[in-house]
Queue: 4 jobs
Job 1
Amino acid sequence: MASATRGCLVILFIISLALLSPAQGQVCTQEDEQALLDFKAQLRCNKINDPTNNACPFDSWVEGTDCCQWNGVNCDSSSQQGVIGIQLNGSISLGKRTSFQITRVPNSGNFGASLVQLPLLNLELTFVDVNANLPREWGSISTLKTLVIRGGRIFGDIPTAYGGLVNLESFVIENAAFGVPVPARSPSGTAGIPKELCKLTELVTFHLELLNLGGTIPDCIGRWSSLQEFVVRNGGGDRDFSGRDPSSSIPNAAGLTGGLPAGLFRLTSLTSIDLNTNRLTGSLPSSIGRLINLESLNLGNNRFFGQLPGDVGDLMNLQFLYLNGNHFSQQLSSSLGKKLKALVELDLGSNNFSGPIPEAVLNILTLEVLRLDDNGFTGKLPKGNLPGSRSVSNLRLNVSLNYISGPLDPRLLPPNTQDLYVCCQHSKLARTGIPSSISVLTSLVTLDLHDNQLGGTIPTSFGQLPDLDRVDLSYNNLMGQIPPAIRALGDRANLKGNPLLRR
Ligand SMILES: *[C@@H]1O[C@H](CO)[C@@H](O)[C@H](O)[C@H]1NC(C)=O
Ligand SMILES: *[C@@H]1O[C@H](CO)[C@@H](O)[C@H](O)[C@H]1NC(C)=O
Ligand SMILES: *[C@@H]1O[C@H](CO)[C@@H](O)[C@H](O)[C@H]1NC(C)=O
């Protein structure tokens, strides 16, 4: 008992020694310090709102002090390698206000060139306004595992010298971060993803946002066998049901060209592909079905065409599928809905799909967003109320601008429908009125049936929908009284263009 206590004390003593004594090798070398000071000299920290605050990371970067203690600098304590990490955050927000900004000093030499002398594993610049091309010199920091620049206004091609970053695991350039304006000098790159980068076989994350690269994706990326995230997107901002990726956030957007190389479909570790807003073309090969770990696939706003291979249905882990804004055509395979049991958002809007909407698609029980609008779908809306337990979230469904024919039967729609957009069918829902069974959709918030030549009266059963908030029934042939529940919506009920309605 006593010896056990003594043993514990000895261990505690050793632990506290380890914690208290300054770790060997933590002290910065003269060379490392100079490299960092040269880097600092290329940047300026502007204090914006509060000139007295002491929050600028560079305030601690003082010559003659141990650089391992400087804000944003990490040293290696175990093997005495020196400075192995720089993580600079160029913006600290106090409340809603930004208190300072780090910007590059113009004409201060090749940006970041001095950093090549450091055995860096990690280089992360957040909200440092670099406003320049990626430094070619960094290609020789072969130790680098993480290279991240967020909100830095980077433009130009990726230097071919980056083929030397053979240990790189994360390559992230996010120009759109924190609302930093996109580079004014776009379009920039023309060389696409340089073939030299295929040597980076340790890559897990390849994420370029609003870099506006032109050129093609080389087939040799098939060597990135650890890759989980492949993102080269030029659409900015977050997407939601109503606000899609803007098709082009960059003036004169360049965008990747050519097709998806076969090599891409060998990367079976991929969980996410996002190539939104490029100029990619060709059809989607059946080998897409091999990427069984995919959770998110975004090919929106490109120039893909042809039939969607049924093999997409093999992507059982897929939660987000965005193919909107392309030229995909022909019928949807019913296997799509049968096997995609995890799908949360499906956007096939603004394509050239035709034929009926498969029942299986409307009955994916996890679905929260389904956009099939602006296509050539025909026939009635299929039954969407097959038994099973539905997502706890509601469904937002947009099938506007197709050739869907009436009558609309709310009793057959998914019972958790929250938003229902069936406006302006080229075929018109015509002559069929709005059935009073609309009241079965008890989660309904938004209903858009405008421009469909709908006749008859507006059912009073709208009064049974507790969450109803917005109704567009404009440009139909509705007649009779406006029921109180609709009248109560005021401006949120659009009834224009129904000359026979009594106000
Ligand atoms: C950097 O600063 C931004 C803006 O203040 C903040 O949102 C972000 O979380 C910070 N990032 C890191 C890594 O500290
Ligand atoms: C629904 O689809 C129509 C036609 O493509 C589009 O104009 C509208 O913005 C979409 N609305 C929502 C909320 O998705
Ligand atoms: C749409 O698809 C049909 C075949 O389903 C094809 O004939 C037509 O050319 C396509 N239109 C466009 C604009 O791609």
Note: The radius of gyration is 29 Å.
Job 2
Amino acid sequence: MGEKNVSQGTLSRRGFLKATGAAAGALGLAGAAGMTTAQDWLAPAQAHAEGEEKVAYLCHQFHCLGNCCLKCTVRDGRLALIEPNDAVRKEDQRICLRGINEIQHVYAADRIQTPLKRVGERGEGKFEAISWDEAIETIANAIKESQEKYGDNSFFFRKSTEASSAHGFDFLSKLLHAETGGNWGLDRGQANGWNPGAGVGSWSPGNNSLAEWPLASTVIFLGDNILESGIVWSRGLFDAKEAGAKIITVDTRFSPTASKSDQWISVKPGTDAALIIGMIRAIMDEGWCDEEFIKAHTGYPYLIDEATGEIYGEMRDVTNEKTGEVTQKKAPYVWDAVSSSARLYDEEGIDPAIEGSWKLDGRTLTTEFSVLKKAYEPYTLDWASQITSVPSETIKGLADDYANRGPAFICFGLGGPDKYANADVLGHALVLVTALTGNIGKKGCGTGWYGAGGAFHSTTALRAWELPDEFKAAKSECEMYNMPYKDNNIHVALTFGDAFTLEAADANSMLDWVKSLDFYAICDIYHSSAVDYADIVLPACTKFECDEEITDLRNCKGYLALGQKCIDPLFESKTDLEVERLIAAQWGYDQYLPKSHEEYARHRLSEAKGNIEGFTIEAFKANQGVLRFLDSDEPMRSSCQFTTETGRLEPYYEKQIKFGQAFPVYETPNEAFEENPLHEQYPLVFVQGKSRFRIHAYYSASSWFQEYFGPVVNISPGDAQTRGIETGDEVRISNDRGTFVCTALVNNAIQPGTLFMAETTYNHYYPEGFLQNVTNSYRQERCYEMTHGPQIPYNDTLVEIEKA
Ligand SMILES: Nc1nc2c(c(=O)[nH]1)N[C@H]1C(S)=C(S)[C@@H](COP(=O)(O)OP(=O)(O)OC[C@H]3O[C@@H](n4cnc5c(=O)[nH]c(N)nc54)[C@H](O)[C@@H]3O)O[C@H]1N2
Ligand SMILES: Nc1nc2c(c(=O)[nH]1)N[C@H]1C(S)=C(S)[C@@H](COP(=O)(O)OP(=O)(O)OC[C@H]3O[C@@H](n4cnc5c(=O)[nH]c(N)nc54)[C@H](O)[C@@H]3O)O[C@H]1N2
Ligand SMILES: [Mo]
């Protein structure tokens, strides 16, 4: 912030727009206009000593899962100070570097200023400024033309998570019957494998789980780097540590979370399932199982027909309590040791055998547990050690800590091991190990992802905005990540945020497909990578800007928060709601949408009951925009009732016999393993993860962060030395999918044979290409039959690196 560039104190928004008009006309991007950027625009405090000041409260970004409640001081119409909202309890007051940095980021040079029309080739990034009217009409005409010619679902509409989850609406996909791109393909790899055994949704256990960490004896972070990816709940880690819990982090690199743990277990990329299978073997071999739990709460004693591998049971009518619908379900038998006979698993007064083999009605019956023991004979500790490169004794010690020290958590993340093609096998193995030890359903233990909603209270009582019945999104025929590879009917696309390059891997394939579309438009705040490929670009405003006093209404970890406007929309930007209204108006559909954020917020609160009963806009205004949920002090809940067919943990997946995965069978990653012939040419695994300096690509535009945390690849000293690479060198990373250039950082926290890079910065911050050019877009076939479909295996990527 150079003093010589300080601008006059009281430039009004209108005057400001005039002053920057020339630059806006040229590109519509802020860069060229000196007055528009934070460096030039932020004046030292004394320059504004007599300025006008107001305070506004809002909830910050959603997608770091932080949702921090902020207090913003606005001076002379500019954001001048950002602090935690002091109306929330002291222990809930928080802000991170990114929040403080918004003062610079909101006014960053990389903002889109005006609507733009492409004038060069797709990908070239050449634009001219146009009016909002022209931009909206062009978009509507392209959609209408395509829908008339090819049908409703020829229009693809997608909002990035930050654009949708933070604002709480997506009306256009329903109004225009759009294809929305089906399964997300993100963050549900382990959940795919966990769901059949423990119940859909239970991978993210709710209800104060984070507050339970201090009750645990052992907390294992399995590829979950919460000190960066969950900054605001990292407090749970330190509380647990102080209370005496042993903290163990399993990670390919010495991550920040590993550095604060009692033990770091360095595992080969994509092999965590083998680590858990090794633990399972140790627990069975050493007799560390919780037999009482196994009998009462798991399917391990269920009988299996040895000849078919099927569960031996009796079909039962089950009535759905809500719908009254009757379906048939298999009720398994167990072998009752009291009567020496097969009995239904839920009969009173029986004592199920955990192991054994019996003949009955011409069948040979055995238990799930016995089948597992036999199936896992080849999976010795030495085998697990060889696959994972973790010493056998360490794996055994981990199993000992988990099974015998007292209540234990396994906290998996949504990154790390989730982003390999074999993540479902890992999720399944986690059901097995949890079921053997009974580390679930009691206080101080559990398995799953403990971030976001699971870590704090939220509400589900906000009323939805109803559209007339005829407005429904098209039934999805193609996942977005499949669009370059699978036949589909998409001709026209509109995205809010850069879904194409942030969410999908293998950007060259994705962007070739985008280029082949008849028309593509994007509404974004910053100059994201996909902008260069759009025919029309619309400038969105940040959360700090609004054209009315109220912005959004949001779950903010224990509180509901009503966002207030800090400043007017900068440049010619508009709120997402206004943009959706403008587009809907082209069909006359704007009549169905809320006219303002205030109307929408009032509607959502209009049936406020349960933990938000009595919450009103006026009450929010009187309390600095935040109200604490009424049930926030409710005691922790834990239960051994699972939402599976039998209500117990069910480790054996009959439906996956056809995949050879009735019990988890170890499988290498799709690409990132040493025996892969591709490994000779591309010997390094390209591991990615979240960074505390960004939310995905967000904050790329902040020059403070750019200076220190731009696109940097971390490489181990050995791998760097053999390639003559030193810190600060420009390096080229390549594989058959593509190539990019960034800066190298030689770092002994990195495992030899791997690289680590924070995902993802917009393409124009790299000297050439960008990270997503090399990532793997493989789709695991069997996952089409799982709850969440194939997940994008970004980390399952082999590359080579050289000095550029
Ligand atoms: N600051 C910040 N926070 C965020 C986000 C953000 O963008 N920025 N995004 C949010 C979102 S959407 C998500 S999904 C979560 C994800 O949060 P996390 O689950 O913590 O995800 P990552 O940071 O991607 O990866 C975690 C760790 O996995 C390690 N890892 C990589 N491969 C393996 C492996 O094979 N085995 C093991 N054991 N470890 C491995 C990496 O080295 C990394 O340290 O973060 C959320 N929080
Ligand atoms: N290579 C690689 N890629 C990855 C990952 C990885 O580990 N490696 N991780 C993946 C994961 S876990 C996730 S969840 C995804 C996240 O990918 P996304 O869900 O797409 O990320 P978000 O940060 O939610 O959305 C960012 C986009 O929306 C824009 N935006 C932000 N706020 C608004 C708004 O209010 N209005 C509008 N119109 N636009 C807005 C931003 O400028 C940006 O273009 O990334 C995935 N991509
Ligand atoms: Mo994610």
Note: The pocket of MGD (ligand 1) is lined by residues 63-65, 187, 222-225, 228-230, 250-253, 255, 267, 269-270, 272, 413-417, 687, 689-692, 694-696, 756, 795 (CB under 6 Å).
Job 3
Amino acid sequence: MANASVALVVGVTGMAGINIAQALKSPTAQGGPWTVYGAARRAMPTWFPSSAVDHFITFDAVDFNDTNATLAPLSNHITHVFWAAINVGRDQEDNIITNSTMLTNVIKALMPIIGPLSYVIFRYKRVLRNILAHFNFLGQPGAAQHEPPFHEDMARLPHPNFYHALEDVVKSYASDIRYTIHRPSIIVGASSRSVYNALVMLAAYAEICKYQNAPFRFFGNRYTWEHFSDMTDTRVLAEQHVWGAVNKKANNQAFNCTNGDVFTWKKMRGVLCEEFGVEFVPLDDKDGLFDLVDEMKDKGKVWNQIVEEKGLVKMKLEEIACFIGFQYLMRSDFQLVSSMNKSKEFGFFGYADSIKSVRFWIGKLREMNIIP
Ligand SMILES: *[C@@H]1O[C@H](CO)[C@@H](O)[C@H](O)[C@H]1NC(C)=O
Ligand SMILES: *[C@@H]1O[C@H](CO)[C@@H](O)[C@H](O)[C@H]1NC(C)=O
Ligand SMILES: *[C@@H]1O[C@H](CO)[C@@H](O)[C@H](O)[C@H]1NC(C)=O
Ligand SMILES: CC(=O)N[C@H]1CO[C@H](CO)[C@@H](O)[C@@H]1O
Ligand SMILES: CC(=O)N[C@H]1CO[C@H](CO)[C@@H](O)[C@@H]1O
């Protein structure tokens, strides 16, 4: 079994990690059959599909000794690392240090064996992060910005960005490992442990509206209401990760990863309203913008009540809610659209219909008992 494919998926309980594990365990997975080690900081959540991994392991990647104690014994076994972990810190500088430390710790623990077979793969959202980074840093919009559609060879923007730090960590090992970098847009998927999960956030807001008999309002501006955006289904993201891992041509390359279509938030709001069972409220911006961040500030208790009454998976509003970041995106003055032409030129043709994606993942979140 010298050539067996053995994957370590770090951050396996997040929405990207679960799907990467599932894509690897699929009977038709390229490069398979795969043995999958799924790693998380905490124990396996109740809703986790245990068939997605062969072994579930826990360690705290911030702590080298803990990481090394768990991974060193596996180091001559694991052939591929899929990085889907995120540890959201107080601010972007904090993220840079924490995250590059986590990745460095994992690579160091596996290093004794890292040879030509080994592979590190991680996702990385440049524009989104740049914006949030800028936001975190200066607290106001107006960051330097590239012209959409965004493509992979655009220069880095001059804001602190932990994805750049991760990319640099991987590149610093380039003589020993091969890698691919995957850059999603707004990610849709299902987990109770993903901080940047827009669908869970929107669902929570919709449920709170229903509970309090309040209108489900759009918190973005007219520009995003009327202009195009794209998103990334975690299934497409996972498919691209596996494709990147087994195709030599993709070695040491970065790829955008989106569904390949576009939508307006006006249209998508209609879909969300149908799915959540709330009335569609057209954008009314005469009196300025509706501030969701402000609205949600004291709604933690209401959400806890909903969780209690409906018997949902215990999850605090603060744990999932990326209200600030998402609201910021919804108020941008550019189209969040990335080019997928590099992926296609290199032979990756995965796609999804974004409206179907949203309906599918909302259904999944219900099935998993994360939303009512
Ligand atoms: C890690 O392990 C080393 C060697 O066993 C020890 O000297 C060090 O104190 C440990 N560090 C932490 C933070 O536990
Ligand atoms: C990591 O763990 C392995 C095996 O337990 C041990 O031999 C090695 O010294 C550790 N590495 C470091 C840097 O502590
Ligand atoms: C696509 O790649 C470009 C260049 O790196 C980047 O600016 C853009 O953000 C990527 N798309 C996304 C959605 O991250
Ligand atoms: C780019 C960056 O900030 N890298 C940091 C990652 O974390 C290590 C360890 O904490 C720092 O030494 C690096 O400067
Ligand atoms: C329209 C567009 O975004 N074209 C890009 C396709 O991808 C290549 C490679 O990343 C870019 O150089 C093009 O600008």
Note: The domain at 5-185+233-258+337-351 is CATH 3.40.50.720 (Rossmann fold).
Job 4
Amino acid sequence: MPEHDVLIIGAGLAGQRAALAAAQAGASVAIVSKVHPVRSHSVAAAGGINAAISVEDDWRSHAYDTVKGSDYLGDQDAIEIMCSEAPGEVMHLEHIGVTFHRNEEGRLDLRAFGGASLKRTAYVADITGQAILHVLYEQLMKRHERVARLEEWFVTSLLLDDSGACAGVVARDVRSGRLEALIARNVILASGGAGQVYHPTTNALIVTGDGIAQAYRAGAPLMDMEMVQYHPTTLVENGLLITEGARGEGAILLNSEGERFMERYAPNKLDLASRDVVSRAEQTEILEGRGAGADKAGIYLDITKVPRKRTLEALREIVNIGRDFAGVDITREPILIRPGQHYIMGGVKTDSNGATPLQGLYAAGEVACVSVHGGNRLGANSLLDTLVFGRRAGEHAAARAQSMPMPEPSTSSRLADEARAIDEIIARPRGGGRRVSEIKAELGQTMNEHVAVYRDQQGLQRALEVVGRLKEESRKAYIDDRGTIFNQDVLGAIELSYMLDCAEATVVAALERKESRGAQFRTDFPARDDERWLEHITITAGPDGPRLGRAPVTITQWQPEERKY
Ligand SMILES: Cc1cc2nc3c(=O)[nH]c(=O)nc-3n(C[C@H](O)[C@H](O)[C@H](O)COP(=O)(O)OP(=O)(O)OC[C@H]3O[C@@H](n4cnc5c(N)ncnc54)[C@H](O)[C@@H]3O)c2cc1C
């Protein structure tokens, strides 16, 4: 296996953007993905990408909205970089072929999104992620001489050299079951979020926190892990996402009494307040008995307010989702939704070039915590984050590679150990423990019950106990497939171990933060407390489990204020 300057783990938007940037900077690049790249979760991104490109807009307004959206936990220097580089990034996408929607004058059209002062979300109907991902993939294929693609390779762990720097990864070729050491001067983790820790979630089955756990196990700190976003509009039946673009186009939320309840919670922004605020409002309505549908567990999203022609043109994917997964024609009747897990603001701590405190290791995209989203991410800021910081990580890693020798980590005993560990999972007797899928289901339900929109000490403590027990049980969990070719079962067992590490970090951080900010609402500490908690919580792996720390929040121009929408 050849060695590379830059090895990228993950081929969603962050990974592909990093690969292009590193290749353009002259580096030899390899990009690894456990699924075909265009099946990465980025392909599901619907509503759009934010950039201050209209003449009335200014990147500082975008930055202020992002800071306020983050409940002042986002690092303002990083937010300034993201928002000021956004217009250039979107224009670059347009120039390489992304077919953004245009208005009647022929300019890029913009739609309204939550928490934004004005319309600044560029979009391709409601398939924005798919449109961008496919264009980037074409660009990667064009550069095949510089960018090696390892598609359907599963990374199991990071490799460190004797100095403790990251020097590559161990990966399994999913097709054959063969393990290899991939050596590189720099590794960029772009392996996405951890939505599958929860059930239900809007995230694809492959979003299992692999990179977060791998970095954590290798000694890199995690940050803001308590900040888990619940999206206000996910289908009651199964948690599938109805894009915020629906409300951006004019859809409204109603309780069982037909009341537009957001008037009470966010009189100015109404249904387009930030996601944490809208999700909490919905949950309060449900808890107080004004929910709709069976068990009064839902809220009506009324998309009939949007002209039918516009819905069929600009929101066609959710027309299909409503019909296929809820049996509802959204152009004619309201659909039942509720808050559901969608995104994690936390991840591997990085600086604004994607560098982690672990030498040779970068992270970008949802796996990373720069932190530009702080306590709550604004809709359509994640695609932007993946591209801006994916590019910056790619450029920086390529530059670093120029001045260093190829590392020489010892690999033979590591490969043998990992092969043995995988054989041990495959050999576990059926019935000797629980099934991997049962443990995963209990984890998801527990997190959704106790580590959700509202949290308290007792529930979090309970979640911590369950996660601890599930960790024990996972060591004996058995699988059915004993083969080597495309053994997804064994990968599922490995992913479960990553999810349990992510869950533990989330619960420990949520217990630690004794205040309410952004997505963390503690009913036992309902106020924001800037005196004690205007700080990031970091988590590193210690000998006896997670070790808590703090990191300062960078404030440049926006002092914390009371947050109202
Ligand atoms: C349904 C949905 C709609 C969304 N809509 C929007 C939107 O409109 N606007 C917006 O800004 N954001 C949106 N988001 C959020 C946004 O799409 C994601 O945060 C973003 O796409 C994540 O990109 P990524 O590149 O970090 O990771 P991903 O796209 O998740 O890619 C992760 C990559 O890592 C690889 N990988 C993971 N683990 C391993 C391993 N062990 N070995 C090898 N490879 C591995 C995967 O194969 C994949 O290629 C949406 C999210 C969802 C779920």
Note: Residues 412-526 form a domain with the Methane Monooxygenase Hydroxylase; Chain G, domain 1 fold (CATH 1.20.58.100).
